[in-house]
Amino acid sequence: MSEKNEVPTLIPPLEGLARLRQFTAARIGLGRAGIGLPTAAHLRFAADHARAKDAVYSSLDTKPLAGGLKRLGLKVGFVRSAARDRDEYLRRPDLGRRLDEEASLANLPPSDVVLVVADGLSAAAVDANLLPLADVLVPQLRARGIEIETAVFVEQGRVAAGDPIGQALKARLVILLIGERPGLSSADSMGCYMTFAPKPGTPDSRRNCISNIRLGGLLPRLAADQIAWLAAEALRREVSGTSLKADPTRAIEGKSG
């Protein structure tokens, strides 16, 4: 019978699995100590779990973000969803899709394309990636002759919150950037959803999505290239979603380990 204070035997990962770890953030080839994880792997898991939880409850630091968008020549507005606080936002996804009854966009000009920024499930992702993406995306859109003059921040917002905003501002296309649900290997992932002819009740099948925009995933400058191409095609063809496919030649190079 083993002694109570016996130290578990540390079993290293198989050599082949250990080599794979340089290509992915997935938890593979961790080895084991007795029937559990080695201490270092356990501590990394706990830290990543805490980071993901923090991301869900993070809030947008809108002042520097709005300042960066204004420097790009965008007029910036602020609204809230119908969710009163973070707990209600997490319990009631439907409220995050609607704007607060007192939300007003009257001070913003109509724009062919409107940029909507929502905290989503990781405001930390938007804080980290919005400006690196916008700094490249906005000039690219304008270089293609696409009018983009307006940006709107949505507190406690989900993807569909962009629909009433786009309709109110007479936008032909909404480009919505939002913090994605954090995982244990990426708490800072931002997604982009594009909707042609947005209006309340638009089904998700009419949206195009580009996800995992971050330094450890799809680099912002490469995401901007994909978004600008899709935006131009959506406006030209007057469709989005399942009727508009991404250009496959623009995808693979955008990955970064």
Can you walk through the features of this model?
The protein is of the alpha/beta class and 257 residues long. The protein has 2 domains: 16-56, no CATH class; 62-246, Rossmann fold, CATH 3.40.50. The chain has 8 helices and 8 strands, in the order βαβααβααβαβαβββα. The protein is globular and about 70 Å long. The N and C termini lie far apart (46 Å). Its EC number is 4.3.1.7. Catalyzes the deamination of various vicinal amino-alcohols to oxo compounds. Allows this organism to utilize ethanolamine as the sole source of nitrogen and carbon in the presence of external vitamin B12. InterPro entries: EutC, EutC_C, EutC_N. The basic unit is a heterodimer which dimerizes to form tetramers. The heterotetramers trimerize; 6 large subunits form a core ring with 6 small subunits projecting outwards.
CATH architecture name of the largest domain? 3-Layer(aba) Sandwich
Shape: globular
Low-confidence stretches: 252-257
Instruction: Give the class-level CATH name of the largest domain.
Output: Alpha Beta
Portion in beta strands: 15-25%
**CATH topology heading of the largest domain:** Rossmann fold
Number of strands: 8
Question: Going across the major beta sheet, what is the strand order?
Answer: 3-5-4-6-7-8
Count the DSSP helices. Answer: 8
Fourth-tier CATH superfamily name of the largest domain? Ethanolamine ammonia-lyase light chain (EutC)
SS class = alpha/beta
Helix content percent band: 25-40%
Number of domains: 2
Order of helices and strands: EHEHHEHHEHEHEEEH
Mean pLDDT: 87
Distance between the termini: 46 Å
The Rg value, from CA coordinates, equals 21 Å
Main sheet makeup:
6 strands, mixed
EC number: 4.3.1.7
Family: Belongs to the EutC family.
Protein name: Ethanolamine ammonia-lyase small subunit
Cofactor: adenosylcob(III)alamin
